[in-house]
Every structure is written in C-alpha cells, then in structure tokens.
Amino acid sequence: MVTLATFLIMWLVPGDISAEIGGIDATPEDLAAIRERLGLDRPLWERAMLWYGNLFRGDLGYSYLLNRSVADAVLERLPVTLSLAALSLTMATLLGMLLGVIAAVRHNTWADQGAMVTALIGLSIPDFWFGIVLIILFGVHLGWFPTGGFVPLNEDFFGWARSMALPAFTLAITQMGVIARMTRSSMLDVLNQDYIRTARAKGMRRHTVIFRHALGNSMVPIVTVVGVITGVLLSGAVVIEIVFSLPGAGRLIVGAIQRRDFPIIQGGLLITACIFVVVNIIVDILYGLFDPRVRDDR
Amino acid sequence: MTDSVGFPDTGSIAAEIARARRRRRREFVRRLLGHPSFLIGSVILLLHVTIAVLAPVLAPHGPTEINYRAILSPPSAQNWFGTDAFGRDVASRMIYGTRVSLRIALIVVLATGILGTLLGTLASYVRWLDGLIMRTLDGLMAFPGVLLAIALAAALGPSEMNAIIALTVTFTPRTARIVRASVLVVQGMQYVESAQAIGAGHGRIVFRYILANALSPLIVQLTFVFAVSIIAEAILSFVGVGPPPPAPSLGNIIAEGRSYVQEAWWIAVFPGLAIAIAVLGLNLMGDGLRDVIDPRQRPMGKGH
Q: Quick check: ipTM above 0.85?
C-alpha cells in the first residue's frame, strides 16, 4: 500500500530527472540515453513490476543521483535518525511523566496549574522554530553547543552528546506535553481508587504508594501515548535534522524528494513505514508487560 | 375539547421541544463561555483573525516593500520586529503572513471536516465499503505525517493550493477514523433503530439521527487539525515546498530567517512566536470544547 502510494505520487511529479543528471550542456541524445539507463523510458506499470520484483529479493534499487544503492544510503543514515528519536523519546518520557506525576499528586494547586501550562506551551510550540531559537540562544550567543552538524558516537562521545543535545531536547519539549497530560489524567483516575486509600491506610510510605501502586497502574494509557509519540518523533526528526544539519535518513529523503531521486524516496519511505509497524508491535508487547489482563486474555 | 386536558395537541408538543432545544443551546453557549481555557483560546484566535482580516490597515509597510537603506536592522520604533535581508519590515510581513497561514489552515480544516465526515460515515454506514476505505486510509497513515505532506507538496509543486491539498490528504485519515468510531456507536443506539422502524429514509437517518449526535468528537478534532495545520504549513514552507516567496507566510519568513540566525535573530524568532501563540489559543479552545461537549471524555483535559 505504502509503495503503491509512492508510485502514484511520483507519477504526479512533473520535472525530469535526466535533465538534472545530464547538466545544462546535455544534448537531447544524452538525456535519452540517461533515461534509458535508468529505465525511465518504460511505462509506469513496468517500472512498478520491476521494483516489486527486486523488492522480494531484498533489493531496494539504486539511487539516480548518489551513485550508490538505496539500502546503503538509507541504512548509513538511519542510526542518526534512530538515536535522535530514542534520545528525545527518553527525555520526553522522563520529563513528561515527572510533570504529570507532580500535577496529579498536587492536584488543583499552583504546581498542577504550572505543570499543565508548561505542558500546553510545549504542545503549541512549532518544533523546528524552537530548534532555531535554541541555536540562536545556545549556539550563536552563548556558544555552549554547536549550531549544527554531527559527530559520530564511535569517534567522540562528548562531541556526539553535544551535537545531539539540542536537537533531542527540541523534539522532546514538544512531545513532553502529551505525555504529561496523559500521565496526569491517568494518575488522577488511579489515585481515586480504593486500593490507593487502603495502601495509605495500612501505613505504606507516600512515595511507595505514588510510584509503585499509582504510577504502575497508570502505565497502560501512558505506554499507548508513548507509542504514538514514537511515530510522531520519527517524523518530527525529519525536520529537526534539517534545522540542525544532521546527516539523518529524514534529511536524505527530503533531499531526494526535492531532487526527484525516486528510488531513494521509495526505499526510504518503505523503511520508515516498516519502522512504524515495528514500533506498534513493540507497544502491543509492552501492554502485556504493564497490564496483566491483556496477558491473561491471550 | 376535553381531549386536550389529557393529551396536549401536537403543536404544543413541538413548541415545547423547540423551547427545550433553545434552552439547551443557550446553556451550552453559557457553559462554553464560562470555561476559562475556551474563553482565553477564543480571544487569542479572534486577535489573530482580526490581524489577518485587517492586514492592509494594520501593516505599517507593504509586505514586499524593499528598503535597501535598512537591511537587517534590529527591532526599532520604525520596524518593531526589525527588517530582513531586503530591508522589508518583518512585522508587516508577519501581519500579511498571518493572513496566508490562517487562510490555508482554515481551508484545510473545512476540507478535512467534509472529507473526513463523508469517508467516516460511508465506512461505518455502508458496511461493504468499510474495509476498502479504512485500509486505504491506514495505508496513508503508515507514512510519517510530515513526510507524506512534504512528498505530496513537492510532487504537486510549491503553491498555496497544493499545500492545502497535501495537508488535507495528510489529516483526513485520522479525522475519518474518529468520525467512523463515533458514528458506529450512535448507529447502534435504539433511537436509530426506531427511526428505521418508522420508515425514515437513509438520508434522514444519517443526517438527522446519526450525524447530529455523532459530530462532537469531530468538532474537537478539527480545532486540533486547525492548530496542527498552522504548524504543518510552516514546516512545508520551511522545507521549501509551501507557498513560495516573496509573498509572506509565517512559515516562509522563518525559513528565510534561518539563513540569518547569526546576524539577525529577529527574522525567525517573531513569526514563530506568532505561530506558537495561535496554536496555543487553538489548543486551549479544543480543551475547553472537549470539556464542555463531553465531560466524561477527558483523557488530556482537566481532571475530576
């Protein structure tokens, strides 16, 4: 379905890739030769069949412009995107749950109000703009962090951490709000339950009750939201990679979209969609971990 | 006329129903306006709409008026939010940009609402279409939303209309899904069954009985689509596939400002602030609407 849709989108694309490869000096014969080499002279359905055929053999094709295979190009850049998403997911979850728990425990106080306003502001900020603001503030004026670029993890850990800190924080802030709100309402539900009162009544410490009993039983909706957010983060990473000039898969795909490098777009979108599906499966498994009822039903 | 003592005639029943309906509507509006977040949100949105509508009156300069004597000058009394690389007044560009951004978001909301309702209702009311429609929409949802919009907008070419199409296609699936879920619930209600029993036609059942009772989740969803559309338009412009310059949109001002973060922070910062405030307003409105329309369903709103 995904691949079919990309084919349809590309069919809509005006513009001719051969002109871009050939350059300004290319003669019409040159262009025709390029088109033939790339198989662009064949009708769309034939190209589609060929692509699907290769796909079953695990071959995603060859980039028009990068002079390398799609799988190589995407896989080389995927770790950047995934580590960015993972880092910001961790930040968003920790910050969001912290805010949510504070808000729920101090329900209807200034702390609650403050946490929820923070969450709402986080929700409303356009993430790419927030990234630019952080660059201006911490990159240009204070000089604490680089204004862009990427240092691989295996070369220099601190360099990597410095280059990833701002992008990850940018993504985390906008998603933190969603988690905070869900944690709060889920916690409030649980805190009103009888067993919480029982636990407190039998003399259990406040912290144990809050973190073990209340938070533990609030996890199912939170996990759902975290799952949804993982998807949002992966697509948000695309724009953040552009803002911070990180060499990730998102920037690769957007660049390919702009330059009509069809195989990269096709393969890149397919791989991203697969990651989406895997994330959903992981979320389903986590349900079972956090909610014994789901486990027993199976 | 002894009958009228025990059985009031149909005319007075109808009048009674109409009165009750009016009372309910007044009560609804009163509660909505009494809800602090809805109130604050609508004031913010109203402010933006006013700015958008009155753009030619409010803007101190033309949005594309070039002034080479004031290139990249910082915020001052003449140029509240500074000037850009062509000496254009950022504040004026923002005022006109608000117009473009709100117009795009509003059309996207309307189109998404209509398409979403149509597809969602068809999927749940016409059983054999369900699989076809929902699988197609699932396919669209398998893409990361931003990438789908960027790919569509790039394929169609950068223009305001194409940005609208790309965003509508991106947001319709989730909206249709919400409508479908809500219609499915209402469809199973007894009053729908009784309407079928007294021989109401499909059109009457769908519009008067089902949609009239199933649309509140849609309205809440649409306020959020509005908010997300404003951000998404900015992202499209930022990547370079939104409404093209020199005509300003809040997004493409930020995109231009990004090249000057070293020497002119004001170009990128202020339009983003305007977006954030507009989106904050819409989120507040959405929260308020959800609280008032359906107090049970508060997964993200106020507690108990």
A: no
